[in-house]
Fold this sequence. Notes:
The protein is globular. It has 18 helices and 18 strands. The strands form three sheets. Strands 9, 10, 11, 12, 13, 14, 15, 16, 17 and 18 form a ten-stranded antiparallel sheet that branches. It has a six-stranded mixed sheet with strand order 5-4-3-6-8-7, with helices on both faces. Strands 1-2 form a two-stranded antiparallel sheet. It is α+β, with helices and mostly antiparallel strands and about 575 residues long.
Amino acid sequence: MLLLARNHSLSKLKPLLSLSLISHSFTTQTPYSHFTSIPKPHFQNPTNSQPLPFSTIFFKPFSSSKSLPLNREGNYDEATTQAHLVCPGCGVHMQDSDPKNPGFFLKPSKKDPRTYRLGAHLEHVAHEPEFNNSLKRGLIIDPENLSSESNLVELKPEKPVVCARCHSLRHYGKVKDPTVENLLPDFDFDHTVGRKLALASGTRSVVLMVVDAADFDGSFPKKVAKLVSDTIEEHSAAWKQGKSGNVPRVVLVVTKIDLLPSSLSPTRLEHWVRTRAREGGANKLTSVHLVSAVRDWGLKNLVDDVVSLAGPRGNVWAIGAQNAGKSTLINAIGKHVGGKITHLTEAPVPGTTLGIVRVEGVLPGHTKLFDTPGLLNPHQITTRLTREEQSLVNISKELKPRTYRIKDGYSVLIAGLMRLDIEESSVDTVYVTAWASPYLPLHMGKTEHACTMVEEHFGRQLQPPIGETRVKELGKWVRKEFQISGNSWDSSSVDIAAAGLGWFAVGLKGEAVLSVWTYDGIDIVLRNALLPNRSYIFEVAGFTVSKIVSKADQASNKPHHRSEKKRKQSDQKESVAC
């Protein structure tokens, strides 16, 4: 080696030095060697005394993320974070060996600020008359400005590397490879978070129970509410007896209130929310907050409340159903509190977060904030829909009422997903208001023609489901009966809601027997009316064209209107000439 160093220059020795370092790194212990699930490479076998050829060592493929366990505990604690590389967007363990497995990522190459995007240092040529056109279209660089380091582009902090799935969701709004979704294990809430909350001693815990205002019953985590309520009762009793009892604090956060009509008063909404939460099993609520991450409503009061409840070293858990808005809420809190930037992936796709993500720098002191994967509710209708169908069902703008004035023997359909029949009524008129996405078409007609609607219009005029084959894939069409009563025609008395879709608000002054049809297994609940106001402009019988269809019709009719306008203008000119 000394002879080589004497006979070669330093630049020629660099490749040899790199190769020696590579060979040395393979003979040392890797950061993952303490995991028994990852087998050691064969050239580390101590029984093999003969050294391997240099070509074998150099060309041996090795990935530190090989055989990583597919769990969803994410970066729950520092030990896991140091052992595995975790995606900061969704919490899945990252690996760079197999693009067909969850967590695959590509590490971006480093860029030299002196050569990367030189266009930022370029200046347009002055528009002088003595310059020709070809020179005016060019760009020149001022050598003095380029050489001075003070005029270089200000280096921005590097964005964290995320997995390919998060990258696709952030930039394209869809999952990169749908087949990988089936490889992800279910999130075991009881094992990861539930056992921590059930401990009688330890760090103080605050549970942020996040619920979607536009789908309250479908997104309300009943299992979590029951577990936390039972833990609070058990630990409270132990604490009163002088024993160790760590009582969790439960904060109910109702997100996306900007989707509800502005005419709804916050006082009425909070009273309605507390009533529904009590019926859902949340008997020990510490506080209730109505927030909008998009409009920045209610974030300050929420943060102040959480900080006071968690203390300087508490754990805060954001828990909720899929697509309830947990990651969006945490990102909004990060921007609200001192401009802290979080990198959680946001997308209108259920199940965006895959593992527990510890969010740094949002809450003061040593308080830890965790974003957890969305809890799957198999009784939500969105779990059976495709991505394209989910985009139509998803409510993204303020809800507008669509009201029908009907009587016995008539039905109202929301797309091909839900139908309401008026079977018997003690009054002549019943007001039915559909609260759902504006992209879903409606239909009102006689109940006797309902069977032909399924055969002739489901998957066509009534979408979703999109396509005739999807109608059979969604399951069996089943009926559920309700007996209701009301005391006013001016406002709705009760709601009949379908999890993940929307609801019918019914207003009448009397009694009625209603039937609701939807696919087998979808949760249908009867509740007090959330939005009592109805529209005073009634929908007509037949099909109500959805917003997306009306936009398509407008776009297709624009050329026709332009040609008609030009023809009229030419006719007017000809008449003036005559």
